[in-house]
Amino acid sequence: MTEKYHIVTYGCQMNVHESEKIAGVLRRMGYEETQNKEDADVIVFNTCCIRENAENHAFGNIGALKKLKKQKPSLLIVVGGCMTQEKGKTEVLSKKFPFIDIMFGTLNLEELETLIRQKREQKKRVVKIRETEGEIVETLEPYRTSYPNAWVNITYGCNNFCSYCIVPYVRGRERSRKPENIIAECKKLVAEGYKEITLLGQNVNSYGADGSTGMNFAELLDAVASIEGNFRLRFMTSHPKDFNEEVVKVMQKHRKIMRLVHLPVQSGSNAVLQAMNRRYTREKYLSEIKMLRSYFPEAEVTTDIIVGFPNETEEDYLQTESLVKEVDFASAFTFVYSKRTGTKAATMEGQIPEDVQKDRIMRLVELVNSLTRKKSEKYLGKTVEILCEDYDEKRGLYLGRDEFGRMGYFKSEKNLIGEFVVLKITEANGISLYGEIAENLESDKAGE
Ligand code: SAH
Ligand code: SF4
Ligand code: F3S
User: Fold this and answer.
1) Which end of the chain lies in a sparser environment, N or C, as judged by fewer CB atoms within 10 Å?
2) Which pTM does this prediction carry?
3) Where does 260-377 sit in CATH, by number?
4) pLDDT digits (tens, 9 = 90+) for 106-135
């Protein structure tokens, strides 16, 4: 009988895509996927450590496997991702969960196969974490699970050291992939029928900043958007300190590029932004939005916001509220500041009490939701073109997103996953839209 794998993923899109690479490694080794932990012969936890609750979540789920491992000692329990890459974390994990068989990090994913083989030959736990980043490995073919969407890394790591953030410590310095490799991967995806490509990096705008690629981000985006075929293109994450008009001009040149930018602002207060080491001001952020909308008045912006950063006053927080209203974000991911050991902010005085943090996040979520609701209502009676991505079994409806990231649900007898469909919106509920098919645009959506 074929052995089976089960992967549990935490964290960002980068991790979701890395789980596809882990799946690729395991499939090449002959394993097959199972959705069921009980049926698995190997379970991989691809962890995240961006906030304390992400870590607690993983701790809880790994701990819950103790019984299964006891019943089935041949089961391999593997822990990788950002958490294992944290200083001292493998020791903590080893102590807490002596039944873990293998640990690897974000910087040596390519070694997974070797580590599994090694573990099969020895009783002892195998732990291998690389401390420094090596050459980019191009041979890890992902097993993609999100058709019609495909994720493509353009950079790895981060050099920004925002004072609250652990990513630079667990992902290493920024490295850019060679443009020819990125373009070849995208061409292949389009030929295979993928309809939406997302270029991924912690700060896509600094692609090639070390001079190693001969191209900057705008040029790369131009090259990828020039690939012929019926697909749409987006990118994330943009950093406000580097986002620029050159990129927006490339967006204008290609209809394939979605009019949607994820531009995390983090805070609306200059004092907080400075303490966060974000290296832009509220005014610069707002002027970028103005610039973007001078090209595309309809452009949508999504963002990330942190409340309760050390020394954030009520006035600072209100500055964030006023910025949110001014920009009118399509949506915002809102977080309570979480202290990460090893980062600069963790040692700052003026940590904010939990009740104040909670009060601010509740007010902010309420504000963001009310703006999103208002936006949704404007869609009523209008038609939107969406890319059908999935089928929601519970609701019995297909769903997809328009180029502004708005989710639309609809009924269809035929499986339309991977097709562009025009919906007439009949109902708006919170952030979701419901509609009827007005037109199926399959294959006649022109290239440019
Ligand atoms: N590279 C991207 C996003 C990285 S992490 C960027 O620069 O924007 C995703 C989001 O998690 C961040 O935008 C930030 O809002 C949030 N985040 C990061 N560290 C955090 C922390 N210590 N506490 C709370 N939220 C955090
Ligand atoms: Fe973290 Fe800042 Fe890098 Fe984003 S840009 S990953 S928030 S250090
Ligand atoms: Fe992503 Fe979490 Fe790592 S947000 S980069 S998986 S710490």
Assistant:
1) N
2) 0.96
3) 3.30.750.200
4) 999 999 999 999 999 999 999 999 999 999
